[in-house]
Write a structure and sequence with these properties.
It is built from 15 helices and eleven strands. The chain has a domain at 3-251: Alpha-Beta Complex (Amidase signature (AS) enzymes), CATH 3.90.1300. The radius of gyration is 21 Å and the shape is globular. By secondary structure, the protein is an alpha/beta fold.
């Protein structure tokens, strides 16, 4: 069996019909990881014993002739900011280099309950802070489409393993674009659900009012099925919403005729690469040909999104990362002679440069005398951004934009320019600030063969609408 063409449904059917076994599929993926991932560096830790134990359970069900669960035998990778019991969980940081998670995140429990086989943990920017996966303490991830380029971040490893075919699907986290941006750079689908749609229990926190967990997949249907499995209310996460979970995969192939789709003019201005603009505009034209009504909408406060995001996110990061003090489960400096020195040295040795930068920025924004001028003002602008989207969605069902201003950039190209790196997320941070769902779907390639992504936004908890539009974009690429 060619594992490179496996899908969610294809994997389950192949096992159910005894064309292969879950164990054979898992072994084939580990063989491919061994031969190919060394150069890409997508995985940080493999959990072979756990994966094969799960595969054997699936095979036992198939041997009995019983119906298999939804994700039976599906090889999945999990970003290393998501807890997996008994498996090293580092968040891409030296400060958690030896940390073994004592429990499974809710999303991991749901994946395995649905029959998925978790292959391992994927590389990421340290504590999910970055747009290129160059901030990992364990080396950068390389883009499988062009190994001289970044895969995007912070979920670069999760995007790369799907693009490389060393997992069929994966999970990432998105705080400012960390699912959608790497999906665009690697030419795969990346879905960020509404804030509260998917439990964050077991996610190592970066910015708690912005963090989301969502799937990567090779196509929109697989992403929709993954969301069906991981979504839903969780009593372990007080921010998860008591909202019913539709069968998102039913939206695949549904017509967009009659839908009103907005094009945000602020996302097509200065800084947008001409090739990206052309590919996205062609996809918009294809939606019009399919019967959608295209309307221009305005999101006027978009220009304030990046500074707003980097005040809110860094402030929350400063608070969340205070727990890594060398006292409990994180790295403790062996050189410290006093308590204050232990705190200082442990954090200095354990955290990388970008994490330190964000902790300092966030601590400053929250400090006495500056809170009102920075953090409080950022929260007010966040409200204005939400009002922009509310007004736009009063007129349209969905909004389409480029996912990123450029295709994937070279490794090291922006490493010494934090502001240029932050601007790589200019089209994605707005959805995190507002809490709406977003998806990136491939919509073409540059002349250099680099993937280009189109982004679809929808109203809160209207992931089905978003998936319908994204699949229409995907279908137009295939014909």
């Amino acid at each position: 069996m060619d594992i490179n063409v496996l899908t969610v449904d294809g994997t389950r059917i192949a096992i159910q019909e005894r064309q292969t076994t879950a164990t054979a599929i898992a072994e084939s993926f580990y063989k491919k990881i061994a031969s190919e991932d060394g150069e890409i560096n997508g995985y940080l830790t493999l959990c072979r014993e756990r994966a094969l134990e799960q595969a054997h359970k699936i095979d036992a069900i198939a041997d009995k002739g019983d119906d298999l669960p939804r994700l039976a035998g599906l090889p999945v990778a999990v970003k290393d900011v998501i807890s997996t019991k008994g498996v090293r969980t580092t968040a891409g940081s030296k400060i958690l280099e030896k940390f073994i998670a004592p429990y499974d995140a809710t999303v991991v429990q749901k994946l395995e309950a649905a029959g998925a086989v978790i292959l391992g943990k994927t590389n990421c920017d340290e504590f999910a802070m970055g747009s290129s996966n160059e901030n990992s303490a364990y080396g950068p991830v390389k883009n499988p489409r062009d190994k001289s380029r970044v895969p995007g971040g912070s979920s670069g490893g999760s995007a790369a393993v799907v693009a490389a075919g060393t997992a069929v699907t994966s999970l990432g986290s998105d705080t400012g674009g960390s699912i959608r941006q790497p999906a665009s750079f690697c030419g795969v689908v990346g879905l960020m659900p509404t804030y509260g749609r998917v439990s964050r229990y077991g996610l190592i926190a970066f910015a708690s009012s912005l963090d989301h967990i969502g799937p990567f997949a090779k196509d929109v249907k697989d992403a929709a099925i993954m969301l069906e499995v991981i979504a839903g209310r969780d009593p372990m996460d007080s921010t998860s919403a008591e909202v019913s979970v539709p069968k998102y995969s039913d939206e695949i192939g549904q017509p967009v005729r009659g839908m009103k789709i907005g094009v945000a003019k602020e996302y097509f201005g200065e800084g947008l690469d001409p090739e990206v603009k052309s590919a996205v505009e062609t996809s918009i034209q294809n939606l019009a040909k399919a019967g959608a009504e295209i309307l221009e909408v305005s999101l006027p406060h978009t220009k304030y999104a990046i500074p707003t995001y980097y005040l809110v996110a860094t402030a929350e990061a400063s608070s969340n990362l205070a727990r890594y003090d060398g006292v409990r489960y994180s790295h403790r400096s062996p050189e410290a002679k006093a308590l204050s020195e232990m705190y200082r040295k442990s954090r200095d040795e354990g955290f990388g440069a970008e994490v330190k930068r964000r902790i300092i920025l966030g601590t400053y924004a929250l400090s006495a005398g500056y809170y009102d001028a920075y953090y409080l003002k950022a929260q007010k602008v966040r409200t204005l951004l939400a009002q922009d989207f509310d007004e736009a969605f009063a007129r349209v069902d969905a909004i389409v934009t480029p996912t990123t201003p450029t295709p994937a950039f070279k490794l090291g190209e922006k490493a010494d320019d934090p502001l240029a790196m932050y601007l790589a997320d200019i089209y994605t941070v707005t959805a995190d600030l507002v809490g709406i769902p977003g998806i990136s779907v491939p919509c073409g390639n540059s002349k250099a063969g680099l993937p280009i992504g189109l982004q679809v936004f929808a109203k809160h908890f209207q992931e089905g609408t978003m998936i319908r539009v994204a699949h229409a974009v995907e279908h137009a690429q295939a014909v």
